[in-house]
Amino acid sequence: MPSTRFDFQNRAGHKLSGVLETGEAAPRAWAVYAHCFTCGKASLAAVRVSRSLAARGIGVLRFDFSGLGDSEGVFGAGLSADAADVVDAARAMAERGMTVQLLVGHSFGGAAVIAAASELPQVKAVATIGAPAAANHVLRDVPADLGDLLEGETREVVIEGRTFPMGAGFVRDVLAQDQARRIANLGRALLVLHSPLDQTVGVDNASHIFLTAHHPKSFVSLDHADHLLSKAADADYAAGVIAAWASRYLVSAPAAPTAEPATGPIHIEETGAGLFQVAVTGAGWCLTADEPRGIGGLGSGPGPFDLVAAGLGACTSMTCRMYADRKGWALRHTTVEVVHTGRTADAKDRFDRAIRFEGDLDETQRARLFEIAERCPVHRALTEGSVVTTTVLGDDR
Question: Which parts of 117-175 fold into alpha helices (H)?
Fold first, then answer.
């Protein structure tokens, strides 16, 4: 199953390390997975649940919180920092055309996704696994006198056999969290998964979360599972339940055809997130298009004219590459930049294209590649004109 590296920068300027899990087919929806306290993206539960969700059509980003695993930054800033990392992860995915509609959090990561949801209007569903009802539950794992340290002071704290420097700021942040208010005001579908045998975060926490939350809400008992979901069967079961439950709330991108046709329609459909956001799906690929925040969009993807400009630039590069390879020329690399200027009362739409050809090319070859760029199919479609026909389909309600 495909696993690709996905690093991104958080609002503190640190690079966070993630892995994007996708199935064999294009995902129908996207999720972010938040790992348990002091764990990481490589924990058994993170890997197994994410991959199992991906196999069921939900692409998942699992990442290391700040200061853990391969991520930069300092661990121990508190729930506020973890929630901010979740938000930044979802926004980084949206910037790359993957709009996150589902948040999944394990243990303290469950508290983090609940805290993060209010900043992510596109998220439609939240699932927690073994999550505490209150953030201060995690203080049972740190020394009672940690909060007595002076500002800037830290102590070496051993958690699950590993040593972390932590300060009083962590305690203050956790104590300041009002998770009950967040749960009551979540405003999204909530799934609470918890094992009645959980010795780390007791199942009474699940009861508090469920009773505090408003509908739609669901509870599923993870019978016989431990807190860390160390058995593969338990992680797979949890993922199966999440995928089936979430399908009721997520806006799915249309499935790509199993066999890629030479030509075929590109499907554009509203996602329901924001005012303008749409899922754009072709044969074996999917991206998100949107408008900037300044005109009412979420800024989660390229706008319509961005896509036209991108098509012109991509076609330019591909056409030049095909020609140079056919001629056996030493074209090493091509870069194209396109700037669109909208039409005015006095002028048509304008696309300004700048091309850089790198390689051992003489002036004659460069001049010829410039001529070829002027003949790329998208360039000709824009400059010579096209025919657009429109058919109104029936309402399938």
Answer: 168-175
